[in-house]
């Protein structure tokens, strides 16, 4: 279990997270939604320990980061490093002796090719494969479906279901609502640094409608399309 | 971009440019004193720098921003700026053929673009421990082959100093693998403490630099057995400086090494016994910096 208490984070005078509270339990999938700049990625980086913050983040682990697989929105890749070598680096980092990457290469990535030459979706799939190989207990997946083809979307959804059944904790952000409704047990709406809504599976369609109404409003009419 | 890099390093751009002039002249003179192949090596360095400006993605961006004529003017000016120090020195040394070749490359490459994202993957013996030596070797493999060629030349010409120069060259290139900080995520991902992390990084650096330098050491020991003590001394110095560079990198992490680390490294080169104090200092700083990410 991960408990976030009074988490606050500012960049200069800009307050990105305003004393938020949240609990993530084992075997559950959490969706975090919000507009661009609402603080999702900052929240994830705080949980990962990649940002300094005020407040408390507690977990069942001595060091949460050592059990956490963090899929970043835009994973960074070294030049001249192949997909296979990237996977090797991630396994080495967690002292995992994995030698047969070809079997675990479920997205059929060209592992002998330099990772920087991959497409956006392929990079995402490579980064996801890497954190899956680490046998993490907690996963933060920041936009895991971005740029990924339909087949892989289906596969990622199934992987999330499998991880849930293995009692892992999964936190996902996505701008594609259907991917969240397919995978999450609950969705939290983040707006201007605070959680404004917590919605469970039964009410996902209601949340989607509300979000549509708020987002679209009369903006299309303003465009004056003929 | 260069101004920003100099600013990040802690140097005012003007001071950086002024300092680079004696550094460039000094290194050029040193190269021409040390080897007869300096002219070719010099040409190779200049051409490789010019060709770096011929990347397709970079030039596609320039083309989208500027008119046709302006684009080619920019490309020619850029190439001329890069080539001019080399060109001036080649003319000063009376290497007219090399200077003419460089001028031809300078002009023609302004009209050429190369896609550097080759599909070909160069195999390396470092696949078990990514990433520094894998990426570094692939970027600078030709320098290692050049160093091995120099070793061969040192044997055929009976020039021991040239062989030692090749050994130093290998270590110098290995140092460059540690000059830029990686994205902090690639430190964060490790589930070991700072001391373990530094041990792991230095162990890899020593092991892989041994693989790269050993062919030279073995050849020199076989063909210059009387100089075995000097060969081993240079190898040991290479190891010590490599450890220092690794520690210097992480003592500034996640920032890039700047003036304080640069001064410490420069002092240690000037007076190697200073390493006895510098290495522990850099180690403590590196542990402190890494603790912020790993602990």
Q: What are its keywords?
A:
heterodimer; A: 226 residues; alpha/beta; Rossmann fold; six-stranded mixed β-sheet; three-stranded antiparallel β-sheet; 8 helices; 9 strands; globular; B: 295 residues; mainly alpha; 2 domains; 13 helices
Secondary structure layout:
The complex is a heterodimer of chains A (226) and B (295).
Chain A: E1 2-11, E2 14-24, E3 29-33, H1 40-48, E4 54-59, E5 68-71, H2 83-93, H3 101-104, H4 120-133, E6 138-142, H5 150-165, E7 169-173, H6 177-183, E8 186-191, E9 194-200, H7 204-216, H8 219-223
Helix pairs in contact in A: 2-4
Chain B: H1 2-9, H2 13-34, H3 38-51, H4 56-65, H5 68-92, H6 96-108, H7 132-157, H8 160-176, H9 185-188, H10 194-223, H11 228-252, H12 259-270, H13 275-294
Question: What would your notes on this structure say?
Answer:
- A six-stranded mixed sheet of chain A has the order 5-6-7-3-8-9, with helices on both faces.
- Chain A has helices at residues 40-48, 83-93, 101-104, 120-133, 150-165, 177-183, 204-216, 219-223, and strands spanning 2-11, 14-24, 29-33, 54-59, 68-71, 138-142, 169-173, 186-191, 194-200.
- In chain A, α5 links the parallel β6 (138-142) and β7 (169-173).
- Chain A has a single domain, classed as P-loop containing nucleotide triphosphate hydrolases (Rossmann fold, 3-Layer(aba) Sandwich).
- Chain A is an alpha/beta fold.
- Chain B is mainly α.
- Chain B has two domains: 35-111; 132-294, no CATH class.
- The longest helix of chain B is centred in the C-terminal third of the chain and has 30 residues, at 194-223.
- The model of chain B has no long low-confidence stretch (mean pLDDT 89).
- The A-B interface holds A 48-50, 63, 65-66, 70, 72, 76, 78-82, 84-86, 88-90, 92-95, 112-114, 116-117 and B 117, 119, 121-122, 127-131, 134-135, 138-139, 182-186, 188-192, 293, 295.
């Amino acid at each position: 279990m991960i408990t976030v208490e009074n988490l606050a984070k500012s960049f200069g005078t800009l307050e990105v997270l305003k004393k938020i509270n949240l609990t993530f339990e084992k075997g559950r999938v959490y969706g975090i939604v919000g507009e661009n700049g609402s603080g999702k990625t900052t929240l994830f980086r705080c949980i990962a320990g990649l940002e300094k913050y005020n407040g408390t983040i507690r977990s069942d682990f001595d060091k949460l980061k050592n059990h956490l697989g963090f899929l970043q929105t835009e994973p960074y890749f070294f030049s001249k490093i192949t997909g296979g070598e990237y996977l090797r680096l991630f396994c080495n980092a967690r002292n995992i002796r994995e030698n047969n990457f070809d079997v675990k290469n479920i997205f059929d990535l060209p592992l002998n090719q330099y990772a920087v030459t991959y497409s956006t979706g392929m990079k995402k799939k490579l980064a996801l494969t890497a954190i899956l190989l680490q046998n993490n207990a907690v996963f933060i997946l920041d936009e895991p479906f971005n740029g990924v083809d339909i087949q892989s979307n289906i596969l990622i959804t199934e992987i999330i279901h499998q991880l849930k059944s293995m009692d892992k904790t999964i936190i996902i952000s996505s701008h594609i609502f259907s991917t969240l409704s397919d995978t999450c047990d609950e969705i939290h709406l983040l707006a201007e640094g605070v959680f404004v809504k917590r919605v469970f599976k039964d009410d996902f369609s209601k949340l989607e409608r509300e979000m549509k109404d708020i987002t679209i409003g009369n903006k299309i009419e303003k465009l004056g399309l003929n | 971009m260069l101004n920003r890099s100099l600013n990040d390093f802690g140097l005012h751009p003007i001071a950086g440019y002024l300092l680079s002039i004696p550094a460039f002249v000094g290194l050029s003179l040193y190269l021409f004193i040390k080897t007869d192949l300096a002219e070719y090596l010099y040409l190779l360095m200049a051409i490789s720098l010019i060709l770096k400006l011929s990347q397709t993605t970079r030039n596609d961006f320039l083309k989208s921003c500027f008119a046709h004529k302006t684009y080619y003017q920019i490309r020619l000016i850029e190439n001329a700026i890069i080539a001019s120090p080399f060109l001036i020195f080649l003319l000063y040394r009376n290497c007219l053929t090399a200077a003419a070749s460089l001028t031809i490359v300078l002009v023609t490459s302004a009209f050429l673009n190369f896609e550097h994202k080759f599909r070909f993957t160069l195999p390396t013996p470092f696949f078990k421990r990514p990433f520094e030596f894998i990426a570094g070797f692939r970027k600078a493999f030709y320098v290692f082959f050049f160093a091995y060629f120099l070793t061969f030349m040192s044997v055929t010409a009976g020039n021991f100093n040239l062989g030692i120069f090749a050994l130093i060259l290998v270590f110098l290139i290995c140092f460059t693998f540690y000059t830029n900080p990686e994205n902090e995520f690639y430190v964060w991902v490790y589930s070991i403490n700072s001391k373990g992390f530094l041990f792991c990084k230095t162990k890899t650096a020593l092991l892989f630099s041994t693989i790269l330098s050993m062919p030279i050491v073995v050849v020199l020991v076989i063909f210059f057995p009387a100089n075995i003590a000097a060969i081993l001394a240079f190898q040991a110095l290479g190891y010590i400086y490599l450890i220092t560079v690794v520690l210097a990198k992480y003592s500034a992490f996640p920032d890039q090494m700047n003036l304080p680390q640069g001064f410490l490294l420069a002092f240690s080169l000037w007076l190697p016994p200073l390493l006895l104090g510098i290495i522990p200092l850099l180690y403590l700083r590196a542990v402190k910096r890494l603790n912020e990410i790993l602990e």
